[in-house]
C-alpha cells in the first residue's frame, strides 16, 4: 500500500481539476443567483452572457497580441478581461433597458421573464456566433504549467506526478478575489446592503427609500462582471465554443439551485458540490485504488462509475435529490 | 375584422409563402418546408397542451423528440440475430437489476426509519449499482462486438422487412408507421418518470429538470451503442412511402410523369414528398381534432382553471398534481410521435443532430408566436416559424450581399459578414420572439 | 381652528379601481400624542392608515402633514417628508442583522446617523444586545422592536404603526405598549391601528372607532372606554 502516491494521484486527477471547475461553476452560479435574488427570475441567457463576455475578451486579447503586448507568463486574456467586462456591462444594461425594464414596470409574472430571457438567449447566441463564429478557440498563452508532472516527480521522488496548469491556479486565485470582492461589496457597502435588503423584502426596501432602478443597474453590472470572469476562466482552462457555454447552463443552474437560489454563499457551495460530484463519478479510480489495495484485490476494470459523457446526468441527479429532500437548497434560498 | 376571417387570412398567408417558395425555389423545397412544418406544428401542439392549457414549463422537448427517433430504430430496423443471442439477455437482466435496485431503495425508504433507513437505502443503491454494472457491461460488450462497422446493436423488431419488388427495388414498408405510436409511448413513459419526480416543483425548477432530462436522453442515445449505434448513426430506415429510385424505374410512373410534363426524377421526388405530406397532414388533423375536443371538454376547462388559479382549484378539491401529470404525459407523447415522424422523414437517426435550440426553444417560439392556449395558433406558429427558420439563411445571405456590395471582393469584413449570414437564424428567432412578447403577448391567434 | 400635525381629512377611496372602502373618514394625530384606530374586523382600520400613507387612491378629501398638503405624494416621498411607517407583516429584513436593518431604515439619510442608532439602542436595549444577529432569528416581540426601530431611523416627524401587537403574547404586548409610550414621550406623534382595542384605548390620547369605513366614535381613550355603546359593541361588555 502506498498512501502517498494514491494521494498525489487523487490530487492530480480529481481534486485539482474539480477545484478549478468548481470555482468556474461557482462564479457562474453567483450570477444566476444574484439575478434571481434581485430581479426574481431564472435567467436562461446567462450561459450566452458568459459566451459574449468571453468573446469580447478574446477580441481584446487578439488586439493586445497584435500590439505585441503580453502578460509574461500569465495569459494575456487576463489583461483583456476588464475590456470584456466593460463591453458585457454595456450590453446587459442595454438589454435591460430595451427588454426587461418593460416587464418589470408591468410587474409581469416571473415565468414571463424566463420566456423573455429565452428570447434574449437566442439573440445573444446569434450575436456571439456573428462576432466570433462557432469554432473551438484556444486563447490561453503564457506558461502552460505551474508545476509539470515530471518536475513534481523529480522533486519528490514519487511515482505519481502532480501537474498544476497555470490556468487552474489562475482560476482559483481569480475566483477567490472575485468572491472576496463580492462579499465585501454585499456586506460592507451601502449599495451592497441595499441590494441585499431589496432581495430580502422588496416592499420594505422601497419604503426605506432604496432606489430600485439603481439596485437593478448595479446588479446587472456585477452579473456581467461575474459572467465574463467565469466564462474567461472556463475558456482559458478548456477552450471557447459558443455552444459549450450554452450547455454550461445546466450545471450552473444545478449549482445555484442546490445551494439555494438567491443565496450567494449557497451558489459557491453548490458550484463545488456539483463539480466534485461530476469529477468523482466520472473519474476512473483504478489508478488510485492500485496504490491503496493489496495486489490480489487490484481491480480489473477502470473503476469508473459512469462514462464522462454522463456528466450532465450527475449534476442533474444531485439537483433532483436536493430538490426532493431540501427544496430550498443546502443553504436557505428564496422560494417564489 | 372578425377573428375567424383573420385566422383564415393568416393561414392563407402561410400558404402564400409556401406558394412563393414553390415558384421561386422549386416545389421540391416548398414541399420539404411544408412537411417539416407539419411536424413542427404537431410538436407545437404538444407543447401548447402543456404550456397553453396547463402552464407547465417544459423545456425538455428535445428529449421526447429524440425518444420518438429512437422508436423508429427499435420498431423499423430488422433485429440483429447474432447480437440478440450474444448479449441481449444479459443487457435486459442488467436493466432489470438496475430497475430493481431503484424500486428496492424506494421500498426500503418506506419500510425503515431513522439511521437504518439512510444506511439501508445507501447500501442497496451502492451494491445494486455495482451488480448492475457487472451484469450489464458484459452484455453490452458482447453486443457491440457483433459486426461493429455495420450494426453492433440489437436492432429493432421489424422481422418482415425490407420489402423488394421483382426487380429488387425497395418497396414501402408500412411497419415503420407503428414507430409513431411507439415513439409516443416511449416519450409518455419518460414523461411519467419525470412527472412523478419533478411536477411538484416550482415552474423554473421543472424547467431546469426537463432541460436536464433532455440532455441525459441525448447522452444515452449517443453513448449506448448497443441500443441504436450511438454516434455511428442508423441509416436506411424503412419508409412508409414509395422510394424515388423505385418510381423512376417504374414504366407506368415514367409515363404518368411525362403526361404531367415532368421528368421522372423531379416527379418522383415530388410524389414521395407529397405522400409524406398526406400522412403528416392526416396525423396533424387527427391530433388537432383531439386537442380541440380536449380544450372544450370539462377536462380542458378544469385544466385552464388550474392554470389560472392553482390554489383555488386545489381548494375546490381538484387533484392538481394528478391533472398536471396527465397533461404532461399527453403533451410529451405528442412530441414523441412528432419525433418519430421526423426521423422517418429523414430516413436516419443521428443523435448528434439533436440541439436544444432547434428542438426545444424553436418550438417554444412557435407556440408563443402562434398564440399559447390556442391549438390553431400552434399549428400556424409551427408552419410560419418553420418557414422563417429555413428561409432566414438565404434571406440573410441576400441582405449581407446587398450590404457588402459596396466593399471590395475579398475584403476581410465582406467575407466575415457573408460568412455570418449563416448565424442570422438564431438572431432572427430571438428578435421575433421578443417582438411578439412585447407587442402581441397573446400571439397571432390568441386564446379565446 | 389650527390643523392637527397630521390629518387625513374626510378621505374617500379604495384600492386601485376597486370599490371605495373609506367613506369620508377622518384621522388625525397631534404632537406628543398617541392616536389609535380601532374597530371591528373589516372596518377599514388598516386601509385608513394606508390612505394616510399614500398606499391607496384617495378620491376625495386630503392628507396634510404639518400644514402641507401631501395627498398626491407617493409613500416614498412621504417617508422623505418625515413619515415613518411600520407595516403589519414583512416589516423587517429577515436575512440581515439587526444593525443592518437599522442602517437600511436610515437609507435616505446622508448625514451621520450613529446618534439616532444609539438612541434607538437606548430605547430598545435588547436590540443592542442582539445587533449582530439576523433579525429573522429573533422572537416575535423583538422583531416588532426591530421594525419600530427601523422606522425611527429616519427621525420621522410622525410614526405610524399597523397592528404592532398582532401575533405576540400578552406579556410581550404590554412591553411593546410601554415602548411605544416611551417613543411618544420623545415628542413623536404616533398613529396606530390596533386589534386589542381595550389595551390600545388605555394608552390612547385620541381614539377613532371605525365601522365600515366611516368614523363611528371619536374621543379620548378614556372617553371611549367609558362610552356604553363602544363597550357593548367592541369591548365585549
TrEMBL record, chain A:
Q: Where are the transmembrane segments?
A: 6-39, 51-71, 77-99, 111-132, 162-186, 214-236, 305-325
* InterPro entries in the record: ABC_transp_permease (IPR001851), BCAA_transport_permease (IPR052157)
Membrane keyword on record: yes
- Which family does the similarity line name? Belongs to the binding-protein-dependent transport system permease family. LivHM subfamily.
PANTHER family hit by this protein = BRANCHED-CHAIN AMINO ACID TRANSPORT SYSTEM PERMEASE PROTEIN LIVH (PTHR11795), HIGH-AFFINITY BRANCHED-CHAIN AMINO ACID TRANSPORT SYSTEM PERMEASE PROTEIN LIVH (PTHR11795:SF371)
What domain of life does the UniProt record list for this protein's source?
Answer: Bacteria
Q: Classify the main location.
A: membrane
Q: Which GO terms describe its biological process?
A: D-alanine transmembrane transport; L-alanine transport; L-isoleucine import across plasma membrane
Keyword tags: Amino-acid transport, Cell inner membrane, Cell membrane, Membrane, Transmembrane, Transmembrane helix, Transport
Name of the protein described by the UniProt record: Amino acid/amide ABC transporter membrane protein 1, HAAT family
Q: What is the membrane topology listed in the Swiss-Prot or TrEMBL record? A: Multi-pass membrane protein
Q: Where in the cell is it found?
A: Cell membrane
Q: Does the keyword Chaperone apply?
A: no
Gene Ontology MF term list: L-isoleucine transmembrane transporter activity; L-leucine transmembrane transporter activity; L-phenylalanine transmembrane transporter activity; L-valine transmembrane transporter activity
Q: Which GO terms describe its cellular component?
A: plasma membrane
From TrEMBL, chain B:
GO MF annotations in UniProt: branched-chain amino acid transmembrane transporter activity
How does this protein lie in the membrane? Multi-pass membrane protein
Transmembrane stretches, by residue range? 7-24, 30-49, 56-77, 83-107, 119-143, 174-193, 205-221, 270-291, 325-345, 357-376
Sorted alphabetically, the Gene Ontology cellular component annotations on this record are:
plasma membrane
Entry keyword Metal-binding = no
Q: Where does this protein chiefly localize?
A: membrane
Q: Where in the cell is it found?
A: Cell membrane
Checking InterPro entries in the record gives: ABC_transp_permease (IPR001851), LivM-like (IPR043428)
CDD domains listed in its UniProt record: TM_PBP1_LivM_like (cd06581)
Keywords, A to Z?
Cell membrane, Membrane, Transmembrane, Transmembrane helix
Q: Does the keyword Cell membrane apply?
A: yes
Protein name from the UniProt record: Amino acid/amide ABC transporter membrane protein 2, HAAT family
Organism of origin is Yoonia tamlensis
The beginning of the lineage is: Bacteria, Pseudomonadati, Pseudomonadota, Alphaproteobacteria, Rhodobacterales
UniProtKB/TrEMBL annotation, chain C:
Q: What is this protein called?
A: Amino acid/amide ABC transporter ATP-binding protein 2, HAAT family
GO BP terms, alphabetized: L-amino acid transport
The taxonomy runs:
Bacteria, Pseudomonadati, Pseudomonadota, Alphaproteobacteria, Rhodobacterales
All residue ranges annotated as the ABC transporter domain in the record: 5-237
Q: Which organism is it from?
A: Yoonia tamlensis
Does the keyword section mention Metal-binding? Answer: no
Top-rank taxon, per record? Bacteria
- Gene3D superfamilies named among the record's database cross-references: P-loop containing nucleotide triphosphate hydrolases
Q: Does the keyword RNA-binding apply?
A: no
- Give one GO molecular function term: ATP hydrolysis activity
Q: Which family does it belong to?
A: Belongs to the ABC transporter superfamily.
Keywords assigned: Amino-acid transport, ATP-binding, Nucleotide-binding, Transport
Amino acid at each position: 500500500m502506498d498512501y502517498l502516491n494514491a494521494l498525489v494521484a487523487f490530487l492530480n486527477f480529481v481534486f485539482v481539476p474539480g477545484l478549478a471547475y468548481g470555482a468556474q461553476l461557482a462564479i457562474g452560479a453567483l450570477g444566476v443567483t444574484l439575478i434571481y435574488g434581485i430581479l426574481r427570475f431564472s435567467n436562461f441567457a446567462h450561459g450566452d452572457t458568459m459566451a459574449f463576455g468571453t468573446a469580447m475578451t478574446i477580441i481584446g486579447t487578439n488586439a493586445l497580441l497584435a500590439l505585441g503586448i503580453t502578460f509574461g507568463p500569465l495569459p494575456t486574456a487576463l489583461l483583456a478581461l476588464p475590456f470584456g467586462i466593460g463591453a458585457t456591462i454595456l450590453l446587459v444594461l442595454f438589454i435591460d433597458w430595451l427588454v426587461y425594464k418593460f416587464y418589470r414596470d408591468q410587474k409581469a409574472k416571473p415565468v414571463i421573464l424566463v420566456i423573455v430571457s429565452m428570447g434574449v438567449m437566442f439573440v445573444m447566441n446569434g450575436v456571439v456566433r456573428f462576432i466570433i463564429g462557432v469554432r473551438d478557440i484556444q486563447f490561453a498563452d503564457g506558461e502552460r504549467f505551474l508545476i509539470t508532472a515530471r518536475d513534481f516527480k523529480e522533486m519528490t521522488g514519487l511515482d505519481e506526478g502532480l501537474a498544476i496548469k497555470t490556468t487552474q491556479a489562475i482560476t482559483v486565485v481569480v475566483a477567490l478575489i472575485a468572491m472576496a470582492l463580492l462579499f465585501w461589496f454585499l456586506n460592507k457597502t451601502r449599495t451592497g446592503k441595499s441590494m441585499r435588503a431589496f432581495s430580502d423584502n422588496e416592499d420594505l426596501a422601497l419604503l426605506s427609500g432604496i432606489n430600485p432602478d439603481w439596485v437593478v443597474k448595479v446588479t446587472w453590472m456585477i452579473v456581467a462582471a461575474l459572467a465574463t470572469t467565469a466564462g474567461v476562466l472556463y475558456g482559458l482552462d478548456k477552450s471557447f465554443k459558443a455552444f459549450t457555454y450554452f450547455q454550461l447552463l445546466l450545471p450552473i443552474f444545478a449549482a445555484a439551485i442546490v445551494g439555494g437560489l438567491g443565496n450567494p454563499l449557497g451558489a459557491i457551495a453548490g458550484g463545488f458540490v456539483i463539480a466534485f460530484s461530476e469529477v468523482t463519478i466520472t473519474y476512473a479510480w483504478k489508478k488510485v485504488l492500485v496504490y491503496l489495495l493489496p495486489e490480489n484485490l487490484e481491480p480489473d476494470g477502470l473503476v469508473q462509475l459512469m462514462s464522462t459523457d454522463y456528466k450532465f446526468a450527475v449534476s442533474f441527479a444531485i439537483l433532483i435529490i436536493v430538490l426532493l429532500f431540501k427544496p430550498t437548497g443546502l443553504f436557505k434560498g428564496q422560494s417564489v | 375584422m372578425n377573428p375567424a376571417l383573420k385566422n383564415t387570412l393568416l393561414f392563407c398567408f402561410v400558404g402564400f409563402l409556401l406558394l412563393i417558395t414553390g415558384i421561386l425555389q422549386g416545389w421540391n423545397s416548398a414541399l420539404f418546408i411544408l412537411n417539416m412544418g407539419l411536424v413542427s406544428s404537431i410538436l407545437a401542439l404538444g407543447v401548447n397542451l402543456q404550456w397553453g392549457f396547463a402552464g407547465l414549463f417544459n423545456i425538455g422537448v428535445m428529449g421526447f423528440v429524440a425518444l420518438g427517433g429512437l422508436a423508429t430504430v427499435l420498431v423499423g430496423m430488422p433485429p440483429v440475430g447474432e447480437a440478440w443471442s450474444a448479449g441481449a439477455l444479459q443487457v435486459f437482466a442488467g436493466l432489470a437489476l438496475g430497475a430493481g435496485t431503484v424500486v428496492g431503495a424506494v421500498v426500503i425508504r418506506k419500510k425503515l426509519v431513522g439511521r437504518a433507513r439512510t444506511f439501508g437505502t445507501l447500501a442497496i443503491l451502492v451494491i445494486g449499482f455495482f451488480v448492475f454494472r457487472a451484469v450489464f457491461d458484459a452484455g453490452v460488450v458482447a453486443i457491440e462486438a457483433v459486426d461493429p462497422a455495420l450494426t453492433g446493436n440489437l436492432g429493432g423488431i421489424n422481422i418482415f422487412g425490407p420489402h423488394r419488388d421483382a426487380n429488387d427495388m425497395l418497396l414501402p414498408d408500412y411497419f415503420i408507421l407503428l414507430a409513431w405510436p411507439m415513439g409516443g409511448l416511449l416519450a409518455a413513459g419518460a414523461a411519467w418518470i419525470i412527472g412523478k419526480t419533478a411536477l411538484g416543483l416550482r415552474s423554473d425548477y421543472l424547467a431546469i429538470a426537463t432541460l436536464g432530462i433532455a440532455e441525459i436522453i441525448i447522452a444515452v442515445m449517443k453513448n449506448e451503442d448497443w441500443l441504436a449505434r450511438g454516434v455511428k448513426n442508423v441509416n436506411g430506415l424503412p419508409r412508409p412511402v414509395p422510394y424515388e429510385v423505385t418510381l423512376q424505374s417504374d414504366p407506368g410512373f415514367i409515363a404518368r410523369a411525362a403526361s404531367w410534363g415532368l421528368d421522372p426524377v423531379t416527379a418522383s421526388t415530388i410524389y414521395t414528398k407529397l405522400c409524406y405530406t398526406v400522412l403528416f397532414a392526416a396525423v396533424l388533423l387527427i391530433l388537432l381534432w383531439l386537442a380541440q375536443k380536449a380544450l372544450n371538454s370539462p377536462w380542458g376547462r378544469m385544466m385552464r382553471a388550474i392554470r389560472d388559479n392553482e390554489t383555488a382549484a386545489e381548494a375546490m378539491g381538484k387533484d392538481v398534481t394528478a391533472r398536471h401529470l396527465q397533461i404532461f404525459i399527453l403533451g410529451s407523447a405528442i412530441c414523441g410521435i412528432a419525433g418519430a415522424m421526423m426521423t422517418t422523414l429523414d430516413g436516419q437517426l443521428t443523435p448528434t443532430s439533436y440541439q436544444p435550440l432547434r428542438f426545444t426553444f424553436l418550438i417554444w417560439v412557435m407556440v408563443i408566436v402562434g398564440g399559447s392556449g390556442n391549438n390553431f395558433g400552434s399549428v400556424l406558429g409551427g408552419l410560419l416559424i418553420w418557414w422563417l427558420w429555413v428561409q432566414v439563411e438565404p434571406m440573410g445571405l441576400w441582405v449581407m450581399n446587398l450590404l457588402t456590395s459596396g466593399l471590395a471582393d475579398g475584403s476581410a469584413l465582406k467575407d466575415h459578414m457573408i460568412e455570418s449570414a449563416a448565424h442570422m437564424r438564431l438572431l432572427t428567432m430571438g428578435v421575433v420572439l421578443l417582438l411578439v412578447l412585447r407587442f402581441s403577448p397573446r400571439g397571432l391567434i390568441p386564446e379565446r | 381652528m389650527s390643523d392637527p400635525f397630521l390629518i387625513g381629512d374626510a378621505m374617500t377611496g379604495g384600492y386601485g379601481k376597486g370599490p371605495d372602502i373609506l367613506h369620508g373618514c377622518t384621522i388625525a394625530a397631534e404632537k406628543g400624542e398617541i392616536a389609535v384606530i380601532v374597530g371591528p374586523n373589516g372596518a377599514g382600520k388598516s386601509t385608513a392608515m394606508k390612505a394616510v400613507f399614500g398606499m391607496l387612491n384617495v378620491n376625495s378629501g386630503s392628507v396634510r402633514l404639518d400644514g402641507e398638503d401631501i395627498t398626491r405624494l407617493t409613500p416614498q416621498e412621504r417617508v422623505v417628508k418625515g413619515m415613518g411607517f411600520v407595516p403589519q407583516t414583512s416589516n423587517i429584513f429577515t436575512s440581515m442583522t439587526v444593525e443592518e436593518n437599522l442602517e437600511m431604515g436610515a437609507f435616505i439619510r446622508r448625514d451621520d446617523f450613529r446618534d439616532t442608532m444609539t438612541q434607538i439602542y437606548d430605547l430598545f436595549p435588547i436590540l443592542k444586545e442582539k445587533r449582530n444577529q439576523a433579525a429573522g432569528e429573533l422572537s416575535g416581540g423583538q422583531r416588532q422592536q426591530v421594525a419600530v426601530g427601523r422606522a425611527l431611523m429616519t427621525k420621522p416627524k410622525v410614526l405610524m404603526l399597523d397592528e404592532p401587537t398582532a401575533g405576540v403574547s400578552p406579556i410581550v404586548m404590554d412591553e411593546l405598549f410601554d415602548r411605544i409610550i416611551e417613543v411618544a414621550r420623545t415628542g413623536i406623534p404616533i398613529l396606530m391601528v390596533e386589534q386589542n382595542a381595550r389595551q390600545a384605548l388605555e394608552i390612547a390620547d385620541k381614539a377613532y372607532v371605525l365601522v365600515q369605513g366611516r368614523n363611528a366614535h371619536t374621543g379620548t381613550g378614556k372617553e371611549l372606554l367609558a362610552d356604553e355603546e363602544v363597550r357593548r359593541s367592541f369591548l365585549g361588555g
